[in-house]
Amino acid sequence: MTLKELSDLLGLSPTTVSRALNGYPEVSEATRIKVAAAADAHGYAPNTRARALATGRAMAIGHVIPISAKHEMVNPIFADFTAGAGEVYSRNGYDMLMSVVSDQNEKQAYRSFATKRNVDGLIIHAPSLNDERIPFLNDLGLPYVVHGRSSRATAPYAWVDVNNTRAFRRATELLLDLGHTRIALLNGLEHMDFAARRRAGYEAALTARGITPDPALMFSAEMTEAQGHDLTRPLLATSDRPTAILVSSMIMAIGVRRGIEELGLTMGRDVSLITYDDDLSYFRNGSDIPVYTATRSSVRQAGQHAAQLLIDIINGNDSPSELLLEAELTLGTSTGPNRKS
Amino acid sequence: MTLKELSDLLGLSPTTVSRALNGYPEVSEATRIKVAAAADAHGYAPNTRARALATGRAMAIGHVIPISAKHEMVNPIFADFTAGAGEVYSRNGYDMLMSVVSDQNEKQAYRSFATKRNVDGLIIHAPSLNDERIPFLNDLGLPYVVHGRSSRATAPYAWVDVNNTRAFRRATELLLDLGHTRIALLNGLEHMDFAARRRAGYEAALTARGITPDPALMFSAEMTEAQGHDLTRPLLATSDRPTAILVSSMIMAIGVRRGIEELGLTMGRDVSLITYDDDLSYFRNGSDIPVYTATRSSVRQAGQHAAQLLIDIINGNDSPSELLLEAELTLGTSTGPNRKS
DNA sequence: ATCGAAATCCAAAGCGCTTTGAGTGTCTCA
DNA sequence: TGAGACACTCAAAGCGCTTTGGATTTCGAT
């Protein structure tokens, strides 16, 4: 069913039908209702491609999912972020276009979006400290929003981020308050901005209490279950082992816990643990009582915010284009007072 | 840069330029090279929307991601499946269109894809035993591939699935061989086809050894960490507790393990555990030695196969449209002989 | 020299929609 | 009664591409 067929059916011109459906004022309410009814009855919806061509707007947002060639990894938070963003897109009539590329080809994917003109905007993920995508995209001229920040970027850009520094500072302070002084940090890869900020928060809290951060207690790795486990085992086997561990992701924390228990130790008693929790839908932190003490911020909500911000930018509503979300610190059973001192 | 601009630049007609770029034989090799070079130099790529309108092909595949309204859950395997499918799409010049909708609106999302004509095909996930989407999509006339099967569907459809029955039958047999007779099953929701098949495999193995499946040992729930834990606790608190547990997902298994250890029991010694492992990239089963004994099948590869199959169907290459993948059974440290008998 | 096929290239139509600019009635007020 | 204002509606152009059906040139063969 095309517009022309529908208009023939109604004995109207395509113009009028189009205007009726798109809510233009030049058409009477009576015909509008008639047209809408007929469209509904015959299951008519405008052909996206033709409409996009005519209006110059693709009504689609692009997401580039880079796959690390080394580890064949998909960022686990991606599904929930996507879900959040997707809801907002649907609500606003936008489609979500996903491009899965190996991380070397990422820029090419952005360029391709721009030249093929099949999206009106982009969301980019996981920025590094000085992310080269930002100047690149500024040149490209396609609206975009960054999920996260890039501390050393000089050009302006729109972003939605969590206050990672504050979150890790508070988590560290909690552990200090519980009497822990040897606190390990199992962080994500620190060329990533979020990880650098988390480390800064951790170090700031220690320094403020007169403790010099010990490089032997700080680790930076991919945030997998296996890494969590593999880093924890040797760490806890030393004589002056830490009494508390700060972990950058739930998934990694699962591995840490596995390591703790393999050594016959008990989490929350022998070793305290605080983790960052992205509130992933399939991995909620316990059912009633949280298992892990955690700083939590919903990545799904971040997705909603980022999507809304991008749509605002595309529509030219220049509301503030930066949004800093706060994580909340929730007590679980994984922390307790230091018993070793 | 449009085709017209490029052709003006080259002193050729748009026709010739278009043909040169699309590899039609009516253009000399010399001009083809010249055109390609110019296109490259000026960063020209055909406008997707215009091309789609002209060719009648959207060069895009739709995925509908239903969000369970009740639990606000995103299927965790979705990210990896998507990654696999996305690779194949990219390689073949297809875009991936994602539509996130609450599960009540799912059909509407398919219909919208069909009427708006912005995709050439669909992939659908998580079919139930008698999935109503199959007749619905057959009517709709948009090519599609099902990830999974729908046992009670009468109409034919293309699918890619894992041999769930066989996988669970083999896993159960392994436990039986180890002397376990009271084997619990923590399954996914059994209106889902995959879960029903897994249960069938489990029951078949038991029955073949003369053991009547005990309803008190069979559970069907959402496959979250919390559910795994919450089901395990009371299960292992009974006097005639099972000595082995078969679990339908790694994530759930993590929760089961937590339950086991909270009770002071040791996995692999006091309780054996076998889990189904989708080989999720962020949740590999241990680094060197697998932690869990598991039946594994890569959901990412399933994504690749499904995407390829769909593209084949769209292109009219009618290769066989059904693909059954086998899961492999890998020994980890979570299983051991029954010590209780 | 001439013809026909092969090799190139092009003009123009068309994909299905939006939107501009104009046209036709109908109403209101002088 | 006539003129202007208003409410509707429409024809046609245009978005950027592909593709049909010709037109032109080249060249070996007659």
Automatic annotation (TrEMBL), chains A, B:
Segments passing through the bilayer: none
InterPro entries, per the entry: HTH_LacI, LacI/GalR-like_sensor, Lambda_DNA-bd_dom_sf, Peripla_BP_I
Entry keyword set: DNA-binding, Transcription, Transcription regulation
Pfam families: LacI, Peripla_BP_3
Protein's UniProt keywords contain Transcription regulation: yes
Keyword Transcription regulation: yes
All residue ranges annotated as the HTH lacI-type domain in the record: 1-55
Molecular function terms, GO-annotated: DNA-binding transcription factor activity; transcription cis-regulatory region binding
PANTHER family: ALANINE RACEMASE, LACI-RELATED TRANSCRIPTIONAL REPRESSOR
Entry protein name: LacI family DNA-binding transcriptional regulator
Organism encoding this protein: Aliiroseovarius halocynthiae
